[in-house]
Amino acid sequence: MSHEARLAALKIELPQPAAPAANYVPYVISGNLVFVAGQITIWNGEVRYLGRIGETLSVEDGVAAARLCGLNIIAQVRAACGGNLDRVKRCVKLGGFVNCTPSFTEQPKVINGASDLMVEVFGEAGKHARFAVGANVLPRGVAVEVDAIFEIE
Amino acid sequence: MAGQIEARLAALGLTLPPAPQPVANYVGFVVVGREIHVAGVGPTWGREVRHSGKLGAQLDVAQGYEAARLTALNLLAHAKAAIGDLDRITRCVKLFCLVNAVPEFLDGTKVADGATDLLNDLFGPDKRPVRSTTTAPSLPFDIAFEADGIFLFE
Predict the structure, then answer these.
(1) Which of A28, B52, B70, B75 is 20 to 30 A removed from A4 (C-alpha atoms)?
(2) Closest chain A residue by Cα to residue B102
(3) What confidence tens digit (pLDDT) does each residue in B60-92 have?
(4) Nearest by CB to B137, which of A31, A102, A132?
């Protein structure tokens, strides 16, 4: 099944690709790689999942927040592909930042919200390398931020 | 057959750990063209965490340096799993280094040197990577250090 068909079959809705918050672009295409800027928990302009995991938010909130970051990444990649996700050859890499307390160590579980989404939508091509790290604050106070590298054809 | 790079490792009294198993729904590396993108790894040996805790609290710079050195070995373990022979690596392109530290800790770069000094010893000074280092208030499993990397190979 093609990526676009799988997305439709899963009834996964993508947000509008978010405009950058400052003097940078949402993605850069270099050769056959798409570098996607850090995406936060925003749905069509509305910022969601504000707060710190381990304090005001739970791990489950964090997983949902990471999934929303992932949806924004896919929206940007679709834009980079001229509206056609079937050009995606592979999700190469995700970088996950988790707004959390200093004693919180379950960043991998949180970032799974984004990783699981990539495998759901892209199947084998969605399997990527990644890192997950704690941050003491993130832009606009969001719970999670994720950036990405994709290979396209 | 172990090649030149592994001979240099042995001369330094080092061996490669087993390539770490990803702890969640991702893979240890992805090969794109002539690049190996390695996932974030830490100072582990197999499933055992060898260096945990925060710089500036439980750990000093020397301990952090050792954690970074072991982390670099784990990056190389993935690179070897990807292409079979470390001698095929032409250079490390980029490292992103994360130091588990208290907010007052300012010597993150000295800690990350543990990773880049090893790469320098193995591949030579003209093959050193670009590097970003930042401190983090917490890391998965309370590991002291984490790094990901991009390697170029032929």
Answers:
(1) A28
(2) A102
(3) 999 999 999 999 999 999 999 999 999 999 999
(4) A102
Alpha-helical regions (H) of chain A: 3-9, 59-80, 107-122
Measured in whole angstroms, the distance separating CA B52 from the mean position of its chain's CA atoms is 15
Answer whether residue A53 is part of any domain. Answer: yes
CA atoms within 13 A on the CB side of A24: 12
Q: What is the pTM of this model?
A: 0.91
For residue A111, tell me if it sits in a domain: yes
Whole-number pLDDT of residue B1: 53
* A125: in domain: yes
Task: For tokens 């890192």, name the residue.
Answer: A131
Q: Count up the domains in chain A and report the number.
A: 1
Test B29 with A129 for CB contact under 8 angstroms: yes
- What is the residue range of A111's domain? 39-86+98-144
- Mean pLDDT over the full length of chain B: 95
Residues contacting residue B46 through CB under 8 Å, at least 6 positions apart? B17, B18, B20
Q: Do residue B138 and residue A104 have CB atoms under 8 angstroms apart?
A: yes
By the 10 Å C-beta count (0-12 exposed, 13-18 middle, 19+ buried), B39 is classed as buried
Task: Look at residue A23 in the predicted model and tell me its pLDDT.
Answer: 87
CATH code at position A132: 3.30.1330.40
Distance from the Cα of B114 to chain A's closest Cα (Å) equals 19
Look at residue A129 and tell me if it is in a domain: yes
ipTM for the assembly: 0.85
Contacts of A119 in chain B (CB under 8 A): 25
Span B1-29, average pLDDT? 91
Domain B4-153 CATH (choose: 3.30.1330.40, 3.30.499.10, 2.70.98.10, 2.40.30.20): 3.30.1330.40
Reply yes or no on whether the pLDDT at A46 is more than 60: yes
Q: Which of B27, B33, B54 sits opposite A127 (nearest CB)?
A: B27
